[in-house]
Protein backbone atom coordinates (compact mmCIF):
# COMPACT_ATOMS: atom_id res chain seq x y z
CA UNK A 1 0.00 0.00 0.00
CA UNK A 2 1.39 3.39 -1.00
CA UNK A 3 0.95 6.26 1.42
CA UNK A 4 1.04 10.00 1.08
CA UNK A 5 4.29 11.81 0.54
CA UNK A 6 3.24 14.68 2.80
CA UNK A 7 0.57 15.12 5.48
CA UNK A 8 -0.07 18.60 6.89
CA UNK A 9 -1.41 18.97 10.43
CA UNK A 10 -2.56 22.16 12.09
CA UNK A 11 -5.40 24.57 12.75
CA UNK A 12 -7.40 26.95 10.56
CA UNK A 13 -4.20 28.54 9.24
CA UNK A 14 -3.17 25.28 7.59
CA UNK A 15 -6.75 24.26 6.81
CA UNK A 16 -6.63 26.61 3.84
CA UNK A 17 -4.44 24.05 2.06
CA UNK A 18 -7.60 21.94 1.83
CA UNK A 19 -9.40 24.70 -0.01
CA UNK A 20 -11.69 25.28 2.96
CA UNK A 21 -11.83 27.66 5.90
CA UNK A 22 -13.94 26.68 8.87
CA UNK A 23 -15.25 23.84 6.75
CA UNK A 24 -16.55 26.21 4.05
CA UNK A 25 -15.18 26.46 0.47
CA UNK A 26 -12.25 28.85 0.34
CA UNK A 27 -9.72 29.63 -2.43
CA UNK A 28 -9.77 25.99 -3.57
CA UNK A 29 -9.37 26.99 -7.20
CA UNK A 30 -6.62 29.50 -6.54
CA UNK A 31 -4.34 27.39 -4.39
CA UNK A 32 -4.18 24.19 -6.46
CA UNK A 33 -0.99 25.38 -8.19
CA UNK A 34 0.58 26.47 -4.90
CA UNK A 35 0.70 23.14 -3.11
CA UNK A 36 4.00 22.10 -1.52
CA UNK A 37 3.74 18.53 -2.87
CA UNK A 38 1.38 16.91 -5.41
CA UNK A 39 0.80 13.82 -3.25
CA UNK A 40 -0.30 15.48 -0.03
CA UNK A 41 -3.28 15.69 2.27
CA UNK A 42 -4.17 18.46 4.72
CA UNK A 43 -5.58 17.06 7.97
CA UNK A 44 -6.29 20.36 9.68
CA UNK A 45 -9.13 21.53 11.89
CA UNK A 46 -10.41 25.00 12.69
CA UNK A 47 -9.72 26.27 16.23
CA UNK A 48 -7.42 23.34 17.00
CA UNK A 49 -5.15 23.44 20.04
CA UNK A 50 -2.04 21.40 20.78
CA UNK A 51 -4.04 19.10 23.02
CA UNK A 52 -6.89 18.54 20.57
CA UNK A 53 -4.49 17.62 17.77
CA UNK A 54 -2.56 15.35 20.13
CA UNK A 55 -5.75 13.57 21.14
CA UNK A 56 -6.71 13.07 17.50
CA UNK A 57 -3.34 11.49 16.77
CA UNK A 58 -3.43 9.26 19.85
CA UNK A 59 -6.92 8.08 18.92
CA UNK A 60 -6.01 6.85 15.48
CA UNK A 61 -6.08 9.85 13.17
CA UNK A 62 -2.77 8.95 11.55
CA UNK A 63 -2.40 7.39 8.08
CA UNK A 64 -2.37 3.58 7.84
CA UNK A 65 0.91 3.90 5.96
CA UNK A 66 3.48 6.29 7.41
CA UNK A 67 3.82 9.35 5.16
CA UNK A 68 7.30 10.33 4.12
CA UNK A 69 6.86 13.74 5.76
CA UNK A 70 4.42 15.24 8.27
CA UNK A 71 4.33 19.04 8.44
CA UNK A 72 2.87 20.64 11.56
CA UNK A 73 1.90 24.26 12.17
CA UNK A 74 -0.05 24.72 15.38
CA UNK A 75 0.12 26.65 18.64
CA UNK A 76 -1.29 30.04 17.65
CA UNK A 77 -4.58 29.39 19.45
CA UNK A 78 -2.72 28.17 22.54
CA UNK A 79 -0.52 31.26 22.52
CA UNK A 80 -3.46 33.62 22.03
CA UNK A 81 -5.42 32.02 24.87
CA UNK A 82 -2.38 32.19 27.14
CA UNK A 83 -1.72 35.85 26.41
CA UNK A 84 -5.36 36.71 27.07
CA UNK A 85 -5.21 35.01 30.46
CA UNK A 86 -1.83 36.40 31.38
CA UNK A 87 -2.68 39.92 30.18
CA UNK A 88 0.46 42.04 30.41
CA UNK A 89 2.16 40.24 33.30
CA UNK A 90 5.62 39.30 32.01
CA UNK A 91 6.15 36.42 34.45
CA UNK A 92 2.78 34.91 33.55
CA UNK A 93 3.57 35.21 29.86
CA UNK A 94 6.89 33.42 30.33
CA UNK A 95 5.14 30.69 32.28
CA UNK A 96 2.53 30.39 29.52
CA UNK A 97 5.23 29.99 26.88
CA UNK A 98 6.82 27.19 28.92
CA UNK A 99 3.44 25.44 29.17
CA UNK A 100 2.95 25.68 25.41
CA UNK A 101 6.45 24.35 24.75
CA UNK A 102 5.71 21.37 27.00
CA UNK A 103 2.49 20.77 25.08
CA UNK A 104 4.37 20.93 21.81
CA UNK A 105 6.89 18.39 23.09
CA UNK A 106 4.01 16.07 23.93
CA UNK A 107 2.50 16.62 20.48
CA UNK A 108 5.77 15.70 18.78
CA UNK A 109 5.88 12.56 20.90
CA UNK A 110 2.38 11.65 19.71
CA UNK A 111 3.38 12.22 16.10
CA UNK A 112 6.49 10.11 16.50
CA UNK A 113 4.51 7.37 18.22
CA UNK A 114 1.89 7.28 15.46
CA UNK A 115 4.28 7.73 12.53
CA UNK A 116 7.60 6.18 13.58
CA UNK A 117 9.26 6.25 10.15
CA UNK A 118 8.16 9.76 9.16
CA UNK A 119 10.20 12.94 8.88
CA UNK A 120 8.47 15.64 10.94
CA UNK A 121 8.74 19.27 9.85
CA UNK A 122 7.84 21.87 12.48
CA UNK A 123 6.86 25.26 11.12
CA UNK A 124 7.48 28.42 13.12
CA UNK A 125 4.28 30.26 14.04
CA UNK A 126 3.41 33.11 11.69
CA UNK A 127 5.08 35.20 13.12
CA UNK A 128 5.63 35.06 16.86
CA UNK A 129 8.27 36.11 19.38
CA UNK A 130 11.82 34.88 19.20
CA UNK A 131 11.55 33.12 22.57
CA UNK A 132 8.76 30.92 21.23
CA UNK A 133 10.64 30.15 18.02
CA UNK A 134 13.87 29.34 19.87
CA UNK A 135 12.05 26.90 22.14
CA UNK A 136 10.33 25.17 19.22
CA UNK A 137 13.64 24.85 17.39
CA UNK A 138 15.26 23.28 20.45
CA UNK A 139 12.60 20.55 20.51
CA UNK A 140 13.69 19.35 17.07
CA UNK A 141 17.44 19.31 17.62
CA UNK A 142 17.79 15.93 19.34
CA UNK A 143 16.02 13.99 16.58
CA UNK A 144 17.68 14.00 13.11
CA UNK A 145 14.33 13.12 11.57
CA UNK A 146 12.74 16.28 12.94
CA UNK A 147 13.23 19.56 11.13
CA UNK A 148 12.41 23.18 11.90
CA UNK A 149 11.59 25.83 9.32
CA UNK A 150 10.40 29.43 9.47
CA UNK A 151 8.32 30.64 6.52
CA UNK A 152 6.79 33.80 7.93
CA UNK A 153 9.42 36.38 7.04
CA UNK A 154 7.39 37.78 4.13
CA UNK A 155 4.31 38.25 6.32
CA UNK A 156 5.68 41.19 8.29
CA UNK A 157 7.23 44.44 7.12
CA UNK A 158 10.98 44.61 7.88
CA UNK A 159 10.78 48.14 9.28
CA UNK A 160 7.66 48.21 11.46
CA UNK A 161 7.02 44.49 12.07
CA UNK A 162 3.44 45.08 10.89
CA UNK A 163 1.38 42.32 9.28
CA UNK A 164 1.36 42.41 5.46
CA UNK A 165 -2.35 42.30 4.63
CA UNK A 166 -1.55 41.45 1.01
CA UNK A 167 -0.77 37.90 2.20
CA UNK A 168 -2.71 37.73 5.48
CA UNK A 169 -5.91 39.72 4.79
CA UNK A 170 -7.32 39.16 8.29
CA UNK A 171 -3.91 39.40 9.93
CA UNK A 172 -3.63 35.65 10.49
CA UNK A 173 -4.87 33.37 7.69
CA UNK A 174 -2.90 33.29 4.40
CA UNK A 175 -4.75 33.82 1.14
CA UNK A 176 -3.78 32.09 -2.12
CA UNK A 177 -0.74 34.35 -2.54
CA UNK A 178 0.31 33.74 1.06
CA UNK A 179 0.02 29.99 0.54
CA UNK A 180 2.18 30.31 -2.56
CA UNK A 181 4.93 31.93 -0.49
CA UNK A 182 4.68 29.19 2.13
CA UNK A 183 4.82 26.52 -0.57
CA UNK A 184 7.94 28.13 -2.05
CA UNK A 185 9.52 28.08 1.41
CA UNK A 186 8.61 24.46 2.16
CA UNK A 187 9.21 22.88 -1.25
CA UNK A 188 13.04 22.57 -1.21
CA UNK A 189 13.02 20.84 2.18
CA UNK A 190 10.07 18.59 1.27
CA UNK A 191 11.69 17.58 -2.00
CA UNK A 192 14.82 16.62 -0.11
CA UNK A 193 12.96 14.64 2.54
CA UNK A 194 10.65 12.80 0.13
CA UNK A 195 13.53 11.56 -2.00
CA UNK A 196 14.26 7.84 -1.73
CA UNK A 197 17.65 8.39 -0.07
CA UNK A 198 16.20 10.62 2.66
CA UNK A 199 13.53 8.11 3.64
CA UNK A 200 15.65 4.96 3.65
CA UNK A 201 16.08 3.50 7.14
CA UNK A 202 14.06 6.38 8.58
CA UNK A 203 13.47 4.68 11.93
CA UNK A 204 16.24 5.75 14.27
CA UNK A 205 17.86 3.83 17.11
CA UNK A 206 15.87 4.15 20.33
CA UNK A 207 18.63 6.02 22.14
CA UNK A 208 18.22 8.98 19.76
CA UNK A 209 14.66 9.45 20.93
CA UNK A 210 14.99 9.36 24.69
CA UNK A 211 13.45 12.80 25.24
CA UNK A 212 10.39 12.13 23.13
CA UNK A 213 9.92 8.62 24.50
CA UNK A 214 9.75 10.13 27.97
CA UNK A 215 7.21 12.68 26.83
CA UNK A 216 5.06 10.00 25.21
CA UNK A 217 4.50 8.38 28.60
CA UNK A 218 2.99 11.64 29.88
CA UNK A 219 0.67 12.44 27.00
CA UNK A 220 -2.61 14.22 27.80
From TrEMBL:
Tell me the superkingdom of the source. Eukaryota
Where in the numbering of this chain does the SGNH hydrolase-type esterase domain appear?
A: 9-180
User: Which GO terms fall under molecular function for this chain's record?
Assistant: hydrolase activity
* InterPro entries xrefs: SGNH_hydro (IPR013830), SGNH_hydro_sf (IPR036514)
Kindly provide the name given to this protein in its UniProt entry: SGNH hydrolase
SUPFAM superfamilies in the cross-refs:
SGNH hydrolase (SSF52266)
Q: What are the UniProt keywords, alphabetically?
A: Hydrolase
One Pfam family this chain carries?
Answer: Lipase_GDSL_2
Keyword set includes Hydrolase: yes
Amino acid sequence: MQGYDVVIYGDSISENWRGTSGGLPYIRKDNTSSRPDPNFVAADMRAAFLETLGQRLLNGQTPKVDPKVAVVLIGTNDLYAATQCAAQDEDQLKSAVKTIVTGFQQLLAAMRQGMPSTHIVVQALYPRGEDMEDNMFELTRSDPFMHYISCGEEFVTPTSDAIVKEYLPDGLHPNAEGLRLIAECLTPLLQKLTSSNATTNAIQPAQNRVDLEASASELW
